[in-house]
Design brief:
Length: about 800
């Protein structure tokens, strides 16, 4: 897909619409309505545009857990080094978007991993600009090729969560151009991305949403971007400066700065009406591209099906297969002392251990989606080893707060009231009342597949949160007996009943921090519950006042404490042929809104891994986290696998990789450091007095480790497989007749698979400047190719390097 020029008739339609709209109608299109929609202009047949997060699935407009395919996170995608596969992932995402009636997917996230402590590292692809750019182009082309827009984010330098809404990234021009902007540039110039989201933070003192150099100068001026620029949610800070800098759309609604205020600014002469026209032109152009203007699909894509507001929960085997392949190709085998793959015929017993060995975790924040399935990893392992005994031990717990109840233990209460086993799958039934006191019959009902539910503005179309009450019901069957800790926090007043008895009374809530600042503190109790018995759970939530805007609840439940769970896990490892330990992190440690405190695995996980390895050297360690972690034990482990946050296909993909049905073929897209002191931004991050200086300059990631001689735990680009490769020669020739221009170079690498099975290798090509006139990294990734080669066969990788591969930013020529 190239730059998406619109056909002349659509441009003509846009011109006619602009001509026909009043100033107020045009201004209304510069701000959202609620979280995910734009207003329509019904009079002129302009429909309501719908946007959705993104980027690891498509959530739709519900914050109560409508299901969609939960895809691997950005780090897993980054580790694939496979642009063709990421293109297919983009197509799957577009299909997901269509199923949710979504026109604009809020992704990909292409900020560069500057510090591994950043809370959103898992959403990004890499510490390298070229790898990020190539994958971003593939992702955007995949999505947009199906007629759904991408909104690439966060432009620019949203590289930490500490003070994310205000901090100023202080970055010199060369560092911006060589490291932090190339992925955005490639997405604009090569993939023709249709929308860009500005970052929360400031860049060199000015909020990104009102940064004229960035939006008007670089994005529109230099890169010729003709699409839509929207703010991050609540990231608009002014009317006139933001409007003049080039921001087109304030999200979400109701508007704080644009819409009516922008119309007023035109009326008093601070903004010219042509500025508003331009913004609306960008929006209408986007609507034309996704096929909702004039009812015609943009280029024969799937957009024709998008216009409906109805959301479907489609569980598609084809998309699931793509997701699983991304996990397999994005899982990095860091080390393997002849332990993997396991031979199913020889393994008699396996101990599957660890806080993440049940349902694999994901990162938190806006990228979270509710999966179709919550597959338990130890069950996926047991299925593949029918002749072996497979035991599961938690070992230790890593919850920062009382964990949200395991929804797979809760069945949708399909009838009113009393217990029994649910027939509607896992989750809760939700009843909406059109009064604040649960009077009469509910006016609407639906099913929620989450235990953390939020309603902003309205709880149901036409029913304001302030005028409603909501009852949530499920049948809870504990998997273990004993003293469970139950907890409830809410936006609004709430109570929780178990078998009809009020066990938590949060009707006079204390102010907490969740639910966009409208939440209460968590109220906790302890209750004896029996394993296998079904209890009715009911939570009522209602507004605190007659103008209350947000309702929400989080129902928490922690299994009874087991005094010797650590020792039991170690004993199980000792008794088994093989131990598999799944450690890592979760949404309470890695999320937007906060950074990680350090590189360590939360809780007693390091101790657990060390004790298990000591008890049984045949231990596979799996790291289910979204960013690099400290792993002093790495050399002692039998094998180490890193799938990152792999999404809902992760459990089966990993089980397949353990027994060799699939080969992990990921390569690190970030360096695994030994200690935080070794990382490039150490000393600069997190900044002070509202500023974070990018003092490492262009020496980000491996550029730092190489040039400064700092030994990483595992280097960028590293990753093993289940076969061996022999590099049989490298030829470098001047390219001819290629698109890449006169200075292009073609590198051909011959590769032999010397092992006994087919496998994948990533050929990586780096360049180094000889006698550079400014300090340059020892090596810079210039190109790569991923090849699949049969056992005993040979193949060639051909990597084209264009001028840009050898260039650096030179202030004097700009
Ligand atoms: C995030 C964005 C996201 C938006 C909408 C913000 O908090 O930074 O990435 O798209 O919310 O959910």
């Amino acid at each position: 897909m190239t730059r998406s020029a619109l056909d002349p008739s659509t441009e003509a339609t846009i011109a006619e619409l602009l001509e026909a709209m009043t100033l107020d109608e045009k201004a209304s299109l510069t701000a959202g309505v609620g979280l995910w929609y734009l207003p329509p202009v019904a009079r002129l047949g302009v429909p309501a545009l719908k946007v959705s997060d993104g980027p690891s699935g498509v959530r739709g407009d519900s914050l109560i857990g409508r299901r969609s395919l939960s895809l691997p996170c950005g780090m897993t995608i980054g580790s694939t080094w496979n642009t063709a596969l990421v293109g297919r992932l983009g197509e799957a995402l577009a299909a997901e978007a269509v199923s949710k009636g979504v026109h604009v997917l809020l992704g990909p996230t292409v900020c560069i991993v500057r510090t591994p402590l950043a809370g959103r590292t898992f959403e990004s692809y890499s510490e390298d600009p070229l790898l990020t750019a190539r994958l971003a182009v593939a992702y955007v082309e995949g999505v947009q090729g199906q007629g759904v827009a991408c909104c690439i984010k966060h432009f620019a330098c949203n590289d930490q969560e500490f003070e994310r809404m205000t901090i100023s990234a202080e970055v010199d021009e060369r560092t911006l151009r060589e490291i932090h902007l190339p992925a955005f540039e490639a997405a604009v110039k090569e993939a023709g991305v249709w929308a860009v989201m500005t970052a929360y933070n400031r860049l060199n003192g000015t909020y990104c949403g009102e940064q004229p150099d960035l939006i008007a100068g670089v994005l529109r001026g230099e890169w010729d971007f003709d699409g839509l620029v929207m703010s991050d949610w609540f990231g608009t800070h002014s009317t006139v400066p933001a409007a003049l800098a080039g921001l087109d759309l304030e999200m979400p609604g109701p508007a704080a700065w644009f819409a009516d205020k922008l119309a007023d600014a035109v009326r008093v002469g601070s903004v010219d009406e042509t500025v508003v026209d331009e913004k609306v032109r960008h929006l209408l152009r986007l609507m034309g591209r996704v096929g909702i203007l004039g009812g015609e699909p943009a280029d024969g894509g799937a957009a024709g099906g998008v216009a409906s507001g109805a959301e479907r929960e489609e569980d598609s085997p084809e998309r699931r297969a793509v997701a699983r392949q991304v996990v397999i190709e994005g899982t990095v085998l860091l080390s393997n002392h002849a332990l993997l793959p396991l031979d199913p015929a020889a393994v008699r017993s396996v101990a599957v251990i660890g806080p993440n060995a049940g349902v694999l975790e994901a990162g938190g924040g806006s990228s979270e989606v509710t999966p179709h399935r919550r597959r338990r990893f130890f069950e996926a392992v047991a299925e593949r080893l029918p002749g072996a005994s497979v035991v599961h031990e938690v070992g230790c717990r890593i919850d920062k707060e009382l964990p949200t109840i395991d929804v797979s233990l809760v069945a949708v209460a399909s009838g009113a009231g009393s217990g029994g086993s649910g027939s509607g799958g896992s989750g809760f039934s939700v009843e909406y009342f059109d009064n604040t006191g649960f009077e009469g019959e509910p006016v609407a009902t639906e099913v929620a597949h989450l235990a953390r539910l939020t309603w902003v503005g309205q709880v149901w179309p036409g029913l304001a949160a302030a005028d409603a009450s909501v009852r949530v019901k499920g049948w809870f069957t504990p998997d273990v007996g004993g003293a469970w800790r139950l907890g409830l926090e809410s936006a609004g007043r709430s109570v929780c009943r178990v078998n009809g008895e009020v066990v938590i009374d949060n009707s006079d809530p204390q102010r907490g921090s969740g639910f966009y600042g409208a939440g209460s503190t968590l109220v906790e109790v302890e209750r004896e519950l029996a394993a296998g018995r079904t209890y009715t759970l009911e939570v009522d939530v209602w507004p605190r006042s007659s103008s209350w805007p947000v309702l929400g609840l989080r129902l928490a439940a922690d299994r009874p404490a087991v005094a010797d769970e650590f020792e039991r896990a170690v004993a199980a490892a000792r008794a088994a042929d093989v131990a598999v330990v799944v450690v890592g992190s979760n949404r309470t440690w890695e999320s937007e809104g906060f950074d990680r405190p350090d590189l360590s695995l939360p809780g007693r996980q390091r101790e657990l891994v060390e004790a298990v390895i000591e008890a049984n050297p045949r231990t596979v360690v799996i790291i289910n986290a979204g960013s690099p972690v400290e792993m002093a034990w790495a050399d002692a482990a039998g094998a180490v696998l890193v799938p990152w946050y792999p999404g809902e296909e992760g459990a089966d993909a990993l089980a397949d990789m353990l027994i060799g049905v699939a080969e992990p073929s990921g390569r690190l897209s970030v360096t695994m450091p030994r200690a935080i002191e070794d990382t490039p931004a150490f000393g600069w991050y997190p900044g002070a007095e509202g500023k974070v200086v990018y003092g490492e300059g262009v020496f980000v990631g491996y550029r730092h480790y190489d040039s400064r001689d700092v030994a990483p735990r595992f280097p960028f680009g590293h990753g093993l497989g289940y076969t061996t490769f022999d590099y049989r020669g490298v030829e470098v020739e001047a390219g001819s007749g290629s698109e890449s221009g006169s200075g292009s170079v073609r590198v051909r690498v011959a590769l032999g698979n010397t092992g006994g099975r087919a496998g994948r290798e990533v050929v990586q090509c780096y360049v180094r400047a000889l006698d550079p006139v400014v300090p340059r990294p020892d090596r810079e990734l210039a190109g790569f190719a991923k090849l699949e080669v049969g056992a005993g066969e040979e193949a060639s990788a051909v990597i084209e390097l264009n001028d840009a591969a050898f260039s650096r930013w030179d202030e004097t020529t700009h």
